[in-house]
Design a protein that fits this description.
single chain; 574 residues; mainly alpha; two-stranded antiparallel ribbon; two-stranded antiparallel sheet; 4 strands
């Protein structure tokens, strides 16, 4: 029944093609019109044949169509581009059919008859200067598309010279090789597809098409990988813009999962090896791919960020990661960002963990500024960051920022409620670890004096005005004259102690310490300032000179207005 159907289809097709050829000889039918009519006949004939059920009938169609077109080829103009296009399309369709049609599935004698027909047609085409059918001839002579020497060498490791394998692949060309890959992937033979793609990738004579096979191989490897650890070997050979292009092309080709895994493996390698070339771009691309993988689960994205943050060895990579978190999940990523900052502070506390090109000072300053921006309402953390910034970069600018934050009456010691107490405590301890002293229980006056001692003398002179200038400024303020009168009156009542004038440019506490009236007076280090000499050392030296062979006076209190902090002070005199 099947043979009769094949013969009937063969006869119908042969009649239509012969009729079309007769019209070409009898009328002014040009080559382009003939090629269009020839293709329409083949399409109509192929629609009536179910490929899955009657593949031998479809093979018979090409057995009749190719000789018919070859026979009429001398009558067609060589200048018509449609002629070469139709011939190439016939060969390609026949080759694709042979990929799906093993010789063992055909009736007895059909394959041999088809082989003989192809050999005769190839001889005729070679005389006409066409060599397109040579690939099909090699396939039919080998007994099938997967029985050629090149395929046996690739899939079954049979001993075939590499030159012969390369020549066979080059003769098929990129289009036919892609057809082979598509079929292998469709039937689930991923390992064989990877081998074939690798051979095509290493074939430099394919030119730009070798990049296509490389992308295909990476897509197959990534799709079969279970985690990014399986792709570390592939990521080791990728670098720069080439790696970014491959990941983007994988994603565009529909391998989103594989692209994300490959990007993760690539990013881990860059973080572990402290590579800065294109690392920022890879971080951004990884964030986009990972966020797209779990659009409704930001916790998984943040967890993945923490995992990669634990691999990072430089602060700049952590800061870039924080920027991407703020861009992707700004409302849920505060705790994760703080944990990454803590990781950065730990890196700064260890020697040799940073790269040689990274400046530790700038890295610490960047961490402090980042923390201050992440938690603007946390006054304690903000002041700790400003103080750390000052210690790392001692300058007038950092001092002014610290002074403004410490003297701001509206800044209350609030805490960030989104952080756990343990995390917040660890953050503050890491910040304090790099301080030269711990001013936890100090007021601003004491802290101010220590900070001024750290500044260069020329900058300190700009920040700390002379006492005479302070007095002049105070006179211009309302209510100062009445306060000074009350101050002088109290001092006269207590012994008529004479305070040097403002032109002497010494403070009232310096004058009091220099007199023999109260030699036991202890100067508070919070208000110490003595003619350019500041700090506790100056006060000790001065007091040692005044305490030699002097009696002690107890329980004397003096009320005075400090010219430095401009507030009324009632110190104890012992």
């Amino acid at each position: 029944m099947e043979e009769r159907t094949i013969d009937e289809d063969r006869g119908a097709l042969f009649g239509r093609l012969a009729d079309l050829a007769s019209h070409l000889h009898q009328g002014p039918l040009v080559a382009a019109e003939y090629c269009r009519a020839f293709c329409e006949v083949l399409v109509e004939n192929s629609r009536t044949i179910p490929v899955a059920e009657n593949s031998p009938a479809l093979l018979t169609t090409y057995k009749e169509a190719i000789p018919a077109f070859t026979k009429i080829l001398p009558s067609l103009s060589d200048d018509c581009p449609q002629v070469s296009a139709v011939l190439a399309r016939l060969v390609l369709c026949c080759f694709e059919l042979l990929l799906y049609l093993p010789a063992s599935d055909l009736p007895v004698g059909v394959w041999d008859a088809f082989t003989s027909s192809i050999e005769e047609i190839q001889a005729t085409l070679e005389q006409l200067g066409h060599d397109e059918l040579r690939v099909v001839l090699e396939v039919v002579r080998a007994g099938g598309a997967w029985r050629t020497p090149a395929m046996l060498s690739i899939f079954h490791k049979e001993p075939v010279p590499s030159e012969e394998v390369d020549a066979s692949l080059l003769s098929e060309g990129p289009v036919m090789l892609r057809l082979r890959l598509s079929l292998l992937v469709a039937v689930g033979h991923h390992a064989e597809a990877c081998r074939l793609a690798e051979c095509c990738e290493n074939l430099s004579k394919l030119g730009s098409a070798s990049a296509t096979f490389r992308l295909a191989r990476l897509g197959l490897v990534c799709d079969t990988a279970t985690s990014d650890n399986d792709l570390q070997g592939e990521a080791a050979h990728l670098d720069g813009s080439e790696a970014l292009d491959l990941v983007c092309n994988l994603d565009a080709a529909g391998h989103a999962h594989g692209a994300r895994l490959l990007c993760t493996a690539l990013l881990k390698r860059k973080l572990q090896n402290v590579e800065k070339d294109s690392t920022g771009e890879v971080i951004v691309l990884w964030s986009q791919l990972t966020r797209r993988a779990w659009p409704s689960e930001p916790s998984r994205f943040l967890s993945a960020c923490l995992e990669l943050g634990s691999v990072a060895r430089t602060t700049c990579h952590l800061l870039f990661r924080i920027r991407t978190i703020q861009a992707e999940v700004p409302s849920d990523g505060l705790e994760t960002c703080v944990q990454l900052c803590i990781r950065g502070l730990r890196l700064q506390a260890k020697d040799g963990c940073e790269s040689a090109t990274e400046e530790p000072v700038s890295a610490m300053v960047s961490l402090c500024l980042t923390l201050a921006c992440l938690m603007p309402d946390d006054a304690e953390v903000g002041r700790a960051c400003l103080l750390t910034h000052f210690f790392e970069d001692v300058s007038v600018i950092t001092y002014r920022a610290l002074e403004q934050a410490s003297c701001n009456p509206e800044a209350k010691p609030t805490c960030s409620g989104s952080l756990t107490p343990s995390m917040r405590c660890e953050l503050l301890l890491l910040l304090k670890a790099c301080w030269p002293f711990d001013p936890e229980l100090w007021d601003w006056t004491s802290l101010r004096q220590q900070c001024l001692n750290m500044l260069p003398s020329e900058e300190t002179a700009k920040l700390v005005p002379a006492e005479g200038d302070s007095a002049k400024e105070e006179r211009t303020s309302p209510g100062v004259e009445e306060q000074e009168e009350e101050e002088d009156k109290e001092k006269k009542d207590q012994g008529d102690v004479k305070i040097p004038s403002d032109d002497g440019r010494i403070s009232w506490r310096e004058a009091l310490a220099a007199t023999n009236f109260m030699p036991g007076y202890t100067i508070n280090a919070q208000h110490q300032h003595h003619r350019g000499r500041t700090g506790i050392a100056a006060s000790k030296q001065h007091m040692q000179q005044s305490l030699i062979n002097q009696p002690q006076i107890n329980s004397v209190r003096i009320k005075h207005r400090c010219r430095l902090c401009r507030r009324w002070c009632v110190p104890w005199l012992e």
